[in-house]
């Protein structure tokens, strides 16, 4: 019995659709071109008249340098003019070109041409069509095509799930996953699809489904998979289930940067700042590499510590020791941390060495540091510096400055 997919009435188009590096890549030109297959060129040479002594157009050649200007539409017109049937493998190549280029009109033309040709649609070919329409933001067409498929495999479901994720329609992504489970899928899912589902569960506040997924992973023996465990720790952290997150952490035989950072983020979210510092120190003892996200998360905790910035200074020194003090995320974290700790001069020093002066986050952090320490004159001066630097100042920040300075005569 055919399974009807959920409605995709609220899907928004997204230009960031990307399934895999092999399937889709960002085009370097607005139009991609197709090289003519050799057997088509030979057939074309047999059925067309010989060129005149003064040809008005370039002859078709098997040389890639001369056939590089042929688009998908050109090949379809050529095949139609020669009354040649297009085999499935040629259609597959044309679909791939439309998928890569994300050319909406050509994708629609190609699909319409395939319908008229009455070609037999195999499951792999249908999956390619699904991927093409998803990459071109034809999500309603993809849904209709999916509903008409009598047979579906994992790729069919995965394309629709990821298409919904890229359109920020997380409820529909979860619905597709549930329908896939009800379709008697018994195979082990790859880690990336589970990670996508857990993310959707967080954004749709569906903790129950996430727990069911976790239970299924335990049955299948994925309890020591680092990528899945990191997603589970994040999942439980968002639902404030720290004990469950720590259970996942403790079940692992080894921990990497992602796992430790996820644990640190959870502790920071719960205002367990001393625990964050302890975990950061333990990372160093175990020789675990720290990244910019690790440092920025720890610096947030340092900003909440009541130790006059002592912990923050030590973390700052550690970033310098590792040669990471020039990272913009760490620099922004340092400005924020020093400002909240009342160390305005240290915040200003961190701000002045920021290489990317167009980074609005650093400007905002410095501005909030002045306001936190009730330095109204410096805050007003910084607003004018932001204007001179071409930084668009948010109206909310201007209002914060007005409120802090108890003046409504400020004009930016």
Which short descriptors sum up this protein?
about 0% strand, about 400 residues, mainly alpha, globular, about 65% helix
Topology of this protein?
Layout: H1 38-47, H2 64-67, H3 72-81, H4 88-101, H5 104-117, H6 123-135, H7 139-147, H8 154-166, H9 170-182, H10 191-203, H11 207-220, H12 226-238, H13 242-251, H14 257-269, H15 273-285, H16 292-304, H17 310-321, H18 328-340, H19 344-352, H20 360-372, H21 376-388, H22 395-405
Explain how this protein is built:
Helix content is 63%, strand content 0%. It is an all-alpha fold. The radius of gyration is 28 Å and the shape is globular. Helix 9 crosses helix 10 (191-203). The chain has helices at 38-47, 64-67, 72-81, 88-101, 104-117, 123-135, 139-147, 154-166, 170-182, 191-203, 207-220, 226-238, 242-251, 257-269, 273-285, 292-304, 310-321, 328-340, 344-352, 360-372, 376-388, 395-405. The protein starts with 37 loop residues before the first helix and ends in a 7-residue tail after the last helix.
Provide a brief overview of the structure.
The radius of gyration is 28 Å and the shape is globular.
